[in-house]
Amino acid sequence: MKRVLLLLPALAVAALALNWALARPSHDRAWRAEYARLPEVERLSDRVRLRNVRNWDYAPDGTPRARDWIDVEIDPAKLTGTYFLMEPFGSVDAIAHTMLAFAFEDGSAYVASIEARREEDESYDAVKAAVLPVFEYMFVWTTERDMYGNSEFVAGDALYMYELNLPPDQQRAVLDAMLAGTADLAARPRFYNTLFSNCTNVLARTINDVNKGAVPFHMAWYLPGYADEFLFERGFLKRAGGFARTRDAAHISPLVRAAYGESDPVAFSRALRDALQIR
Fold first, then answer.
1. What are phi and psi of 59, to 5 degrees?
2. pTM for the complete prediction?
3. 57-69 burial code (b ≥16 CB/10 A, e <16)
4. 135: closest CA among 220, 196, 183?
5. Do 106 and 81 form a contact (C-beta atoms < 8 A)?
6. Which residues contact 72 (CB under 8 A, 6 or more apart)?
7. Which residues, 6+ apart, have CB-to-CB distance to 249 below 8 Å?
């Protein structure tokens, strides 16, 4: 009996490993509406066409008023700024969602977010996703107005936007990494994992695929709530003094609510950045 009890942990691990080995990720499921369309990347001569960019509009109570999807053309040479976004949630400091935003000369700006792709009537379960292949993940691309409105009105979470302190060529490399990762995932679906394939470490690995070692390993890969402080300490964020002051300056939730009256996504992004400059 004792031998059996001693074997139980090993058997449990073996069962989990077998589950992951036998499960097959797929893009063909009955997805929730916000995850229904997988972004597509088409490389043109000097631009990139990005299809299925989400541009939803939300009422103050979080109800979607319009569910639009748009196709956009991105010119990497016109990139003017790259931003690290952090959306803490829950009562534990280590828990947060992280994203990247890219702004361009014409005032447009788009957000890239790695998310667990949920099916209809399926809710997110971080514990289950840590041990079982229950969700695929996807690169969600949206306008800033969509993603920031979702954070403010749907999730009700605080949102922080930090400008990355990188030279233009490295910013373009980060953008290219996100686009390459989007295209690769569209061709090869993968499972989400709370610890090993989450919003932060997939971002980090995607960037490191293009520029090896650009994002050093850190506990923030697994505890995203510490990602902004880690990036600050490494010099990746533009500073507004110490970390506390920089974080306060990055808090954009009140600005999102004030700019949301701009229904055009480009006008929204311009209004948001104008507000940041005069803050």
1. -75, 165
2. 0.92
3. bbeeeeebeeeeb
4. 196
5. no
6. 49, 50, 53, 108, 110
7. 240, 279
Beta-carbon contacts of 21 under 8 Å, excluding residues fewer than 6 positions away, are none
Is 128:108 a contact under the CB 8 Å cutoff?
Answer: no
Give the pair of three-digit tokens for residue 258.
């004030």
Is residue 104 within 8 A of residue 79, CB to CB? The reply is yes
Distance CA 236, CA 71 (A): 30
The DSSP bridge partners found for residue 114 are 139
Instruction: Find the length of the chain.
Output: 279
Tens digit of pLDDT for each residue in 139-174?
A: 999 999 999 999 999 999 999 999 999 999 999 999
DSSP H or E run through 85: strand 79-88
- For 168, half-sphere exposure in the C-beta direction (CA atoms, 13 angstrom radius) is 6
Look at residues 142, 135, 128, 141 and name the one whose alpha carbon lies nearest to residue 190: 135
Angle at which helix 168-187 crosses helix 199-210, to 10 degrees, equals 110
Q: Which residue from 74, 259, 253 is spatially nearest to 179, judged by alpha carbons?
A: 74
Work out the burial of residue 273: count CB atoms within 10 Å of its CB; fewer than 13 is exposed, 13-18 middle, 19 or more buried: buried
CA torsion 190→181→194→94, rounded to 10°? Answer: 180
Give CA torsion, residues 236, 102, 110, 126, to 10 deg.
-20
Cα distances (Å, whole numbers) of residue 37 to 140, 175, 279: 9, 21, 37
HSE-CB of 126 using CA atoms within 13 angstroms: 11
pLDDT (tens digit, 9 = 90+) per residue, 202-249? 999 998 887 888 888 889 999 999 999 999 999 999 999 999 999 999
> Which amino acid belongs to residue 242?
G
AA identity, residue 25: P
- Assigned token pair, 2: 């004792």
